[in-house]
Amino acid sequence: MKFALRRGFTLIELLVVIAIIAVLIALLLPAVQAAREAGRRAQCVNNLKQLALAAHNYHDVVGVFPNGQWYHPFNPSSGLGGTGNNASWIVLQLPQLEMTPLYNAVNFSFMWGDGVQGNYSGKFYLGQANKTVRITIVNTFMCPSDPSNPIHLLPHNDIGAADSEAGTSYLGVMGDNCLGCSGAADQNGQILNPCAQQGYRCTLPQLGDDSSDAPPGGTGVISRAGRSVGVRDILDGTSNTMMIGEQVMDRCNHNGWVHSNTSTGVTSLPLNFIKKPDPSPVNTWVWNYSFHSQHPGGGNFAFTDGSVKFIKNSINYDIYTAISTRARGEIVSADAY
């Protein structure tokens, strides 16, 4: 009785098969990564749409869009030019985001932490009454492409040095107002006039903050500490005016969804700007208080008409600043960005 001998793979043949499989994986992997990024980008767009829709629902109730000027009830200042800003524009529109229980958990008689700044000391109730809300991570406020730790320590004293806060990937667009304009250096030796130093426009007042004896200073839609803006104030058209943009949470430690001082950004520095040759420390806010994104090639922005558009890194700087301001009268074609 004869038996047929079965010939197995030679070592060379096995290596060829492995090489073919490796090539196929190498060809397939970018497509898989691109598909995943497309999914993350779609979720980011959805988050921005929810925030923009909530802002419009807030406008329907209050008559203006939410902003970062919520003064503590015991602030001795009038509504303008006071030293205290508190709850962010995101906090104010929590009910419109169907997060009423989280909104109701905020004790508006207290600041967000133990930090003492300006004339808070002795005039305000400070404490940790709102810590539970402050460290609450909300997925809607985070871009899935942002790899940052959603909880981080804060270097500033608005809330408390070395205290923690939940971050956000989405900042209100203040406009093209400048950042630090003093020309002095901070504790890290970084010059506090990045706009002028880099040759970019420097629109005063700093950060667009209002004062009691000056007209509205902010050029955008959502202020850090300024007058509220309504649709009637957006003379450049809602479809040509940005309202909310992306930020990478770990890029700037002044980042958090509960506080007005950590939830807005400016366009006086270009999209995804990083100081060269040496990136500035993340706690040097004047170099990072702008818009950044982990999406390849640019970032998502919600416009005031509720649409979400992808803005490329290569956008002309003048156009970028023009679509961040509400009433400059620029004529910008939609195909320019």
Automatic annotation (TrEMBL):
UniProt xrefs under InterPro entries:
DUF1559 (IPR011453), N_methyl_site (IPR012902), Pilin-like (IPR045584), Pre_pil_HX9DG_C (IPR027558)
The record places domain DUF1559 at: 33-316
A Pfam short name: N_methyl
Instruction: Give the source's domain of life in one word.
Output: Bacteria
Which Gene3D superfamilies does UniProt cross-reference here?
Answer: Glycoprotein, Type 4 Pilin
Looking up PANTHER family in the UniProt record yields: GENERAL SECRETION PATHWAY PROTEIN G, TYPE II SECRETION SYSTEM PROTEIN H
NCBIfam families (alphabetical): IV_pilin_GFxxxE, pre_pil_HX9DG
Put simply, this protein is called Prepilin-type N-terminal cleavage/methylation domain-containing protein
Look up and give the organism this protein is from.
Singulisphaera acidiphila (strain ATCC BAA-1392 / DSM 18658 / VKM B-2454 / MOB10)
